[in-house]
Amino acid sequence: MANNNPKQFTKEEKPATAKAGRDAANETDSSLSVQPRNSKTAKKSKIRRKTNIRPIILLITFCLFFSFSRVEAQITGSVKIETTYSDNVFHLSEYDIDRFNDGHPNLEFIDTIDDLTLNTRLELAYPLSYRWWIFTPTVTGNFSQNISNEDKYRTDWTIKGKITRYYWNCSIQYTSNPYIYFRQFVDTDGTGELEKYSYSRDTYRTDIAIKPLPKTIVKANLRYELYRYNEYFTEGDGTAITGEAGVSYKFPFFTVEGAYGYRDFSCDKRIENKDCSYQSNIYQGALTLPKMPLSEKGKTLWQPSLALNYEQRFYQGSGSWYGGRADYTYNLSAGMKMFFSPQWNLSLDYSHYFRNVETDNETVQRLKEYNENRLSAALRYTF
Fold it and tell me: Domain containing 193 — which CATH number?
């Protein structure tokens, strides 16, 4: 990484749009200076904070669905309440963290670098059996809200249909993410002001799993994703096609999984220095131990696991921002599940993310490399 003085505020050109991808990693240069709308010099007013009632709504929803589960005996489903702590919720580089600590105006939208996210996930299914076939339609709602940075919230929905027969199953599903907010950047070719960098995503997916041997499962999936950014950053619009295939094998004392995926993101606007198209190789591995008694009585079980994901992302565009650029993202996670009963379980997880950038542009490198640590706890009830 280039060694630049983090306290030196420099003007840089607006990068082309950000790539669409994991956690919506943004490709716009965050170091641009804010341009005033008119010739008058004015101090930017503070953003008014409204009373946040989303966590209360999430809790009420949880209580309603918990009561509903006792009434509709034919419906199966689950409710999960999760809290996640992140020490770098905006994926800031070390350079940007130093600028935030120095009060840089382009980062004034940030309340805190770290944050706590509350999440509620509701799933309802209605299994239908016919002879040796089982058809299961499912509806899932996922609602999340950050505590400090209140603009970070999501309301996502998934509709899924699954067919199961003996040693194989397949499914199709549609997921709607109507609002995903990443952070703010300067709209240099428009308003000249800090604007929200947000987008919507529609995902169409199909999965298949086959059990050819008693201890072996072969899996594959295909996804088509449509990205649409807000009016300030439409150059990021595009589509992504991802295919993954993997296998898991159950040994006497652990289960090991491995998978490979290929992803092709095509930017709608292939303009010089604004073509954020890329191709990725995605490698995944996991190791899971069997459930074990937590105490001598054996009523509570626990199950540890480890996972490693690695993505190589090669940009296909030209220009100073994307030309010859490659991103390498690592995600190492460790978790433990505790099973109190067939209905109740608790998950504790830790994840570390790191992105390394290879490019001839030192500005891109110092802005796009980042580290993040996450801690999460999730309580799930199945009915």
Answer: 2.40.160.40
pLDDT band at 54, cuts 50/70/90?
low
Interior CA angle at 308 toward 304 and 309, to 5°?
A: 140
Mean per-residue pLDDT for 370-382? 98
Share the mean pLDDT of the chain.
86
Q: Following DSSP, what letter does each residue of 224-290 receive, concatenated?
A: EEEEEE-TT-GGG-EEEEEEEEEEEEE-SS-EEEEEEEEEEEEES---TTT---EEEEEEEEEEEPP
Say how many residues make up the chain: 383
For the whole prediction, is pTM greater than 0.85?
no
Do residues 336 and 304 lie in contact, with contact meaning Cβ atoms separated by under 8 Å? yes
How does pLDDT run across 221-271, given as a tens digit for each residue?
A: 999 999 999 999 998 999 999 999 999 999 999 999 999 999 999 998 876
4 lies in some domain = no
Q: Is the pLDDT of residue 4 over 60?
A: no
- The token duo for 65 is 């669905």
Say if 228 falls within a structural domain: yes
Residue 345: count other Cβ atoms within 10 Å of its Cβ. Answer: 21
In a domain, 47, yes or no: no
Percentages (nearest 5) of helix, strand, coil residues in the chain: 10, 50, 35
The structural domain count of the chain equals 1
Q: Under 8 Å CB-to-CB from 192, ≥6 apart: which residues?
A: 34, 35, 36, 37, 186
Residues 6+ apart with CB under 8 A from 365: 1, 2, 357, 358, 359
Residue 365 in any domain: the answer is yes
Specify the pLDDT at position 188. Answer: 82
Give CA–CA dist 146/155, Å, rounded.
12
